[in-house]
Amino acid sequence: MKMGVPIPSSGSVSVLRASLALLMLAACTPQGDPGIASGFSDDFNRTQIGSAYKKTGGNWRIEGGQLHVKGAKNHPLWLLRTLPRDVRVELDVRSESPEGDIKVEIFGDGASYAKHDRYAATSYVIIFGGWDNSQNVLARMDEHGDDRVVGKALKVEPGVVYRFRIERIGGTLAVWVDGDILLKMDDSDPLEGRGHDHFGFNNWQSDLWFDNLKVTPL
Fold it and tell me: What is the mean pLDDT of each run of 10 residues along the chain (218 residues)?
Protein backbone atom coordinates (compact mmCIF):
# COMPACT_ATOMS: atom_id res chain seq x y z
CA MET A 1 0.00 0.00 0.00
CA LYS A 2 1.45 3.36 -1.08
CA MET A 3 1.85 5.75 1.81
CA GLY A 4 0.97 9.39 1.22
CA VAL A 5 2.05 12.53 3.06
CA PRO A 6 -0.10 12.89 6.18
CA ILE A 7 -2.40 15.89 6.17
CA PRO A 8 -2.32 17.79 9.47
CA SER A 9 -5.60 18.17 11.30
CA SER A 10 -7.21 21.58 11.71
CA GLY A 11 -6.22 21.48 15.39
CA SER A 12 -2.56 20.87 14.50
CA VAL A 13 -2.63 23.76 12.02
CA SER A 14 -4.03 26.07 14.67
CA VAL A 15 -1.31 25.06 17.12
CA LEU A 16 1.36 25.59 14.45
CA ARG A 17 0.04 29.05 13.61
CA ALA A 18 -0.09 30.02 17.27
CA SER A 19 3.48 28.79 17.78
CA LEU A 20 4.73 30.80 14.79
CA ALA A 21 2.94 33.90 16.05
CA LEU A 22 4.58 33.54 19.46
CA LEU A 23 8.00 33.12 17.87
CA MET A 24 7.52 36.27 15.78
CA LEU A 25 6.37 38.17 18.86
CA ALA A 26 9.31 36.99 20.93
CA ALA A 27 11.70 38.17 18.22
CA CYS A 28 10.77 41.79 19.00
CA THR A 29 12.43 41.66 22.43
CA PRO A 30 14.60 38.54 22.49
CA GLN A 31 15.94 39.22 25.98
CA GLY A 32 12.55 38.42 27.61
CA ASP A 33 12.62 41.33 30.04
CA PRO A 34 10.63 41.57 33.28
CA GLY A 35 8.06 44.31 33.67
CA ILE A 36 8.07 47.28 36.00
CA ALA A 37 5.54 46.72 38.78
CA SER A 38 5.60 49.50 41.38
CA GLY A 39 8.47 51.38 39.72
CA PHE A 40 12.20 51.46 39.00
CA SER A 41 15.01 53.84 39.98
CA ASP A 42 18.75 54.06 39.42
CA ASP A 43 21.26 56.53 40.89
CA PHE A 44 24.26 54.93 39.09
CA ASN A 45 26.32 54.94 42.29
CA ARG A 46 28.49 51.99 41.28
CA THR A 47 31.35 51.20 38.92
CA GLN A 48 29.66 48.97 36.30
CA ILE A 49 26.52 49.51 34.22
CA GLY A 50 25.14 46.13 35.26
CA SER A 51 22.63 43.59 34.01
CA ALA A 52 19.60 45.91 34.08
CA TYR A 53 20.72 47.43 30.76
CA LYS A 54 21.52 46.29 27.23
CA LYS A 55 24.51 47.99 25.60
CA THR A 56 24.19 48.03 21.79
CA GLY A 57 27.57 49.66 21.14
CA GLY A 58 29.22 52.95 21.99
CA ASN A 59 31.38 53.80 24.99
CA TRP A 60 28.66 53.80 27.66
CA ARG A 61 30.20 53.68 31.13
CA ILE A 62 29.72 54.87 34.70
CA GLU A 63 31.96 57.64 36.00
CA GLY A 64 31.65 59.39 39.34
CA GLY A 65 28.18 58.00 40.01
CA GLN A 66 26.76 59.05 36.63
CA LEU A 67 26.13 57.38 33.27
CA HIS A 68 28.51 58.88 30.70
CA VAL A 69 28.66 58.62 26.91
CA LYS A 70 30.19 60.43 23.97
CA GLY A 71 30.01 59.55 20.28
CA ALA A 72 27.71 56.51 20.52
CA LYS A 73 26.34 57.23 17.00
CA ASN A 74 22.80 56.02 17.76
CA HIS A 75 23.74 52.90 19.68
CA PRO A 76 21.37 53.19 22.65
CA LEU A 77 21.71 51.84 26.14
CA TRP A 78 18.34 50.14 26.74
CA LEU A 79 16.73 49.58 30.12
CA LEU A 80 15.85 45.88 30.26
CA ARG A 81 12.48 46.39 31.92
CA THR A 82 9.22 46.60 30.00
CA LEU A 83 7.32 49.83 30.56
CA PRO A 84 3.67 50.03 31.54
CA ARG A 85 1.26 51.48 28.96
CA ASP A 86 0.94 54.81 30.81
CA VAL A 87 4.12 55.89 32.54
CA ARG A 88 6.28 58.71 33.86
CA VAL A 89 10.05 58.64 33.28
CA GLU A 90 12.29 61.17 35.04
CA LEU A 91 16.04 61.72 34.79
CA ASP A 92 18.80 64.28 35.21
CA VAL A 93 21.04 65.04 32.25
CA ARG A 94 23.69 67.53 31.24
CA SER A 95 25.68 68.08 28.07
CA GLU A 96 29.27 69.26 28.16
CA SER A 97 29.18 70.03 24.43
CA PRO A 98 28.26 73.40 22.86
CA GLU A 99 26.04 71.58 20.35
CA GLY A 100 23.82 70.33 23.19
CA ASP A 101 22.12 67.34 21.54
CA ILE A 102 20.55 65.47 24.46
CA LYS A 103 18.71 62.36 23.26
CA VAL A 104 16.57 59.60 24.79
CA GLU A 105 14.04 57.08 23.42
CA ILE A 106 10.81 55.73 24.87
CA PHE A 107 8.53 52.85 23.85
CA GLY A 108 11.15 51.15 21.70
CA ASP A 109 11.96 47.44 21.37
CA GLY A 110 14.88 47.36 23.81
CA ALA A 111 17.32 46.02 21.25
CA SER A 112 17.55 48.26 18.14
CA TYR A 113 20.53 50.38 17.15
CA ALA A 114 21.80 52.16 14.04
CA LYS A 115 23.00 49.86 11.29
CA HIS A 116 23.23 52.63 8.68
CA ASP A 117 23.81 56.39 8.65
CA ARG A 118 20.06 56.99 9.06
CA TYR A 119 18.74 55.37 12.23
CA ALA A 120 15.42 53.50 11.96
CA ALA A 121 14.10 53.80 15.53
CA THR A 122 11.35 51.61 17.00
CA SER A 123 10.43 54.29 19.54
CA TYR A 124 9.52 57.89 20.13
CA VAL A 125 12.79 59.84 19.91
CA ILE A 126 13.21 62.90 22.13
CA ILE A 127 15.95 65.39 21.23
CA PHE A 128 16.76 68.51 23.24
CA GLY A 129 19.16 70.89 21.50
CA GLY A 130 19.58 68.86 18.33
CA TRP A 131 21.04 69.98 15.02
CA ASP A 132 23.75 72.17 16.57
CA ASN A 133 21.48 73.27 19.43
CA SER A 134 18.86 74.70 17.06
CA GLN A 135 15.83 72.37 17.43
CA ASN A 136 13.93 70.43 20.06
CA VAL A 137 12.12 67.46 18.56
CA LEU A 138 9.72 64.67 19.50
CA ALA A 139 9.58 62.12 16.67
CA ARG A 140 7.65 58.93 16.09
CA MET A 141 10.36 56.46 15.00
CA ASP A 142 11.99 58.84 12.47
CA GLU A 143 13.71 61.93 13.88
CA HIS A 144 13.88 63.36 10.34
CA GLY A 145 10.25 62.54 9.51
CA ASP A 146 7.63 65.06 8.40
CA ASP A 147 5.34 64.07 11.27
CA ARG A 148 7.77 65.00 14.04
CA VAL A 149 6.84 67.68 16.58
CA VAL A 150 9.21 70.65 16.91
CA GLY A 151 9.06 72.36 20.30
CA LYS A 152 9.70 75.90 21.41
CA ALA A 153 13.14 77.42 21.00
CA LEU A 154 15.26 76.57 24.03
CA LYS A 155 18.98 75.93 23.86
CA VAL A 156 20.98 73.50 25.96
CA GLU A 157 23.53 75.30 28.11
CA PRO A 158 26.76 73.29 28.50
CA GLY A 159 27.35 72.15 32.08
CA VAL A 160 23.77 72.77 33.22
CA VAL A 161 21.91 69.82 34.79
CA TYR A 162 18.36 69.52 33.42
CA ARG A 163 15.56 67.50 34.98
CA PHE A 164 13.54 65.67 32.34
CA ARG A 165 10.00 64.41 32.89
CA ILE A 166 8.38 62.28 30.18
CA GLU A 167 4.78 61.12 30.53
CA ARG A 168 2.33 59.19 28.43
CA ILE A 169 -1.36 58.97 29.28
CA GLY A 170 -3.62 57.56 26.58
CA GLY A 171 -2.36 58.78 23.20
CA THR A 172 -0.63 61.88 24.56
CA LEU A 173 3.13 61.93 25.12
CA ALA A 174 4.60 65.03 26.77
CA VAL A 175 8.10 66.13 27.77
CA TRP A 176 8.96 68.69 30.46
CA VAL A 177 12.38 70.19 31.21
CA ASP A 178 12.79 71.69 34.68
CA GLY A 179 9.01 71.74 35.06
CA ASP A 180 8.29 73.60 31.80
CA ILE A 181 6.61 71.84 28.89
CA LEU A 182 9.02 71.39 25.98
CA LEU A 183 7.31 68.93 23.62
CA LYS A 184 3.89 67.29 23.25
CA MET A 185 2.49 64.80 20.75
CA ASP A 186 -1.05 63.45 20.37
CA ASP A 187 -0.73 60.12 18.57
CA SER A 188 -3.92 58.53 17.23
CA ASP A 189 -2.03 55.24 16.78
CA PRO A 190 0.34 55.17 19.76
CA LEU A 191 3.33 52.86 19.94
CA GLU A 192 2.45 50.20 22.50
CA GLY A 193 2.74 46.52 23.32
CA ARG A 194 5.54 44.07 22.61
CA GLY A 195 8.29 45.77 20.63
CA HIS A 196 7.27 49.24 21.85
CA ASP A 197 7.77 48.97 25.60
CA HIS A 198 11.32 50.01 26.54
CA PHE A 199 13.17 53.17 27.55
CA GLY A 200 16.64 53.91 26.20
CA PHE A 201 19.40 56.46 26.65
CA ASN A 202 20.82 57.52 23.30
CA ASN A 203 23.52 59.74 21.86
CA TRP A 204 25.07 60.83 18.58
CA GLN A 205 28.28 62.76 19.20
CA SER A 206 27.81 65.07 22.21
CA ASP A 207 29.34 64.55 25.67
CA LEU A 208 26.39 63.53 27.89
CA TRP A 209 25.99 62.68 31.57
CA PHE A 210 22.81 61.02 32.90
CA ASP A 211 21.71 60.44 36.48
CA ASN A 212 18.79 59.72 38.84
CA LEU A 213 16.54 57.71 36.54
CA LYS A 214 13.06 57.06 37.92
CA VAL A 215 10.22 55.16 36.22
CA THR A 216 6.69 55.36 37.69
CA PRO A 217 3.55 53.59 36.39
CA LEU A 218 0.57 55.93 35.99
Answer: 44 43 44 87 98 97 98 97 97 98 98 90 98 97 95 96 98 98 97 96 98 98
pTM: 0.86
DSSP states of the chain: ----PPPPPHHHHHHHHHHHHHHHHHTTSTT-PPBPSS-EEE---SSS--TTEEE-SS--EEETTEEEEE---S--EEESSBPPSSEEEEEEEEE-STT--EEEEEEE-SS---SSSS---SSEEEEEEHHHHTEEEEEES-TTSTT-EE----PPPTT--EEEEEEEETTEEEEEETTEEEEEEE-SS---STTS-EEEEE-SSSEEEEEEEEEEE-
Domains, the chain, with CATH or none: 10-217 (2.60.120.560)
